[in-house]
Amino acid sequence: MSDQPETLSPGPSGGARSCRDERPAFVDLLPPCNSACPAGENIQRWLRHVQSGDYEKAWRVLTEDNPLPATMGRICYHPCETKCNRAEFDSAVGVNAVERFVGDEALKHGWQFAKPVKETGKRVLVVGAGPSGLSAAYHLRKAGHTVAIHDAGPSAGGMMRFGIPRYRLPRDVLDAEIQRILDLGVELKLDAKVDDLQAAMAAGRFDAAFLGVGAQAARRAEIPAVAAATIVDAVSLLRSVEGGEKPLLGRRVAVYGGGNTALDTARTARRLGAAEPVIVYRRIRAKMPAHDFEVEEALEEGVTVKWLSTIKRVNDRDITIERMELDANGFPQPTGSFEILAADCVALALGQEVEIDLIERIPAIAIAGGVVEVDPNMMTGAEGIFAGGDMVPGERTATVAIGHGKKAAQNIDAWLRQKDQHREPRHAAATSINTWYYSKTPRAERPKLALARRQTTFDEVVLGLGDVSARNEARRCLSCGNCFACDSCIDVCPENAVSRVGERYEIDTQRCTSCKLCVKECPCGAITMVPNMAAIIPTRATDTAPDRSLGCPAPQAR
Ligand SMILES: Cc1cc2nc3c(=O)[nH]c(=O)nc-3n(C[C@H](O)[C@H](O)[C@H](O)COP(=O)(O)OP(=O)(O)OC[C@H]3O[C@@H](n4cnc5c(N)ncnc54)[C@H](O)[C@@H]3O)c2cc1C
Ligand code: SF4
Ligand code: SF4
Ligand code: SF4
């Protein structure tokens, strides 16, 4: 940076230009939404195609990273929006709603994935057809490998089918997106539990394996109960509803837990006829792991919550709960004060554990804290056996599972080809946005089903955006860190040093006086000052968002 005061900096006269030590340069930066998406979607790039009405191109860009956009556009907790720069200006871009729109367009028009160009002859076994397994299978097949998925269940989808209720994810949407992956030539074997991984790999002559068996076993709690008490685990309850059963829960159902599973169970019970579903949770709302919008939707539907309460005993028609109070550190402590609550049934939603019997005979695979340890390439301690999703350390969401599947597939591909995985250096983060350039625009909210139908049917609750709303919502994107061809830098330059040459912008360094006006003017932070000796890189006028973020977070200790 020059230490000359700005008022004394060389003017447009030209003679002093060689003295300056900085000049403006175009950059492509990583937008915060992209960085936060666990699937590593290039959000800004596919939003650009939505803006121009090319929905198929948007879908093709989006599915380079995530093969289930219509599904994720319904169930992803959209961390991309939490990090969206626009949130500080008015409200975050509704990325999730637009993603769903793009996914639904693809289903409507029957767009298919391009088949792999070349077969590698390598065979990969994927164990589990949940989001991590489906994502791994998709990316591996696209790379030309022969892929077979073996799943213990009667249908593919994992917890997206047997956990998440259909009022949040209609099954025709899930089925169609899974079928499109299978149509790439992925083999799916159902009712095919893998008990011994090495035996299964040898029998199928597989060269590598990806494990995505999730966390299927419900965590239990030792609660004293009379013999006649009805206690069920929440995940089994949701699974039986998916299997077409209508469990007899009674009018008053108590759900024990504070996560999304507890919310889904209480809302399902409401739809099955329980007039008074109540969630019993030991902490306060601010500490609830469930997302706020899910709590709101549940409350709207008539679910109530007993905050700061634990279940002490289950009788045949009621439960005894103990009131808790927060200590100085904010942790709930028992008070010795009890209350009786009417309940015909108690559903335990206390989390799930990983079942590891299929790898018990492989001592090289380390288990710590009930989950499988993997290295930064998602490989377990056993060569050629990779794992992801709920069974490895990390956040347990479908989007993280999709990101793990993608990352593992890239590394399995590199391992099979005996190559180091080529990693582009991560682009620097986009931080500087000039919001004066924009006017405030309300975010397009998705409509919801009428309350009466929500309480009595499993019809989808949150509906989709229409064509115009989706396109307008995409237009709210500020294109953080990447040129969107507004021409402001051309207009503002007093030396006429910036020009557009076809698809590109260029700065004539002979004319430029390093006055920085273009840097200050650029709405999205796509021009920065660099040392004068740095290489000159013109930017493209369109489609400049970096091709990839690393996406899914590295596995972390829980
Ligand atoms: C009720 C509920 C609601 C949720 N809601 C959301 C949500 O809205 N959004 C979100 O992002 N996440 C949500 N989640 C979390 C999300 O569903 C999981 O994080 C995700 O499904 C994990 O994916 P996975 O591929 O690791 O495993 P899973 O989805 O659990 O799939 C594992 C698959 O492996 C199969 N399998 C298991 N053992 C074997 C074996 N030995 N051999 C062969 N197959 C086997 C199973 O049959 C299953 O199909 C929810 C979870 C639950 C329980
Ligand atoms: S998958 Fe989730 S985090 Fe990624 S872009 Fe879609 S909504 Fe955002
Ligand atoms: S404004 Fe657009 S590019 Fe910027 S964070 Fe939000 S969605 Fe991403
Ligand atoms: S001012 Fe406009 S045209 Fe110039 S780099 Fe920034 S976004 Fe691109």
Protein architecture, described:
The protein is of the alpha/beta class and 558 residues long. It is built from 18 helices and 22 strands. The strands form seven sheets. Strands 4-3-2-5-18 form a five-stranded parallel β-sheet, with helices on one face. A five-stranded parallel β-sheet has the order 7-14-8-9-10. α7 links the parallel β2 (123-127) and β3. It is globular, with a radius of gyration of 27 Å. Mean pLDDT is 90; it is low at 1-18 and 546-558. The structure holds flavin-adenine dinucleotide and iron/sulfur cluster (SF4) (3 copies). The site of one iron/sulfur cluster has 15 residues, from α17.
Q: Could you say which small molecules are bound to this protein?
A: flavin-adenine dinucleotide, iron/sulfur cluster
Mass-distribution shape: globular
Instruction: Report the structural category.
Output: alpha/beta
Q: Bin the strand percentage.
A: 15-25%
How far the N terminus sits from the C terminus, by CA atoms, comes to 44 Å
Beta-strand segment tally: 22
- Helical residue percent? 25-40%
Mean pLDDT: 90
Q: Give the uncertain stretches in residue-range form.
A: 1-18, 546-558
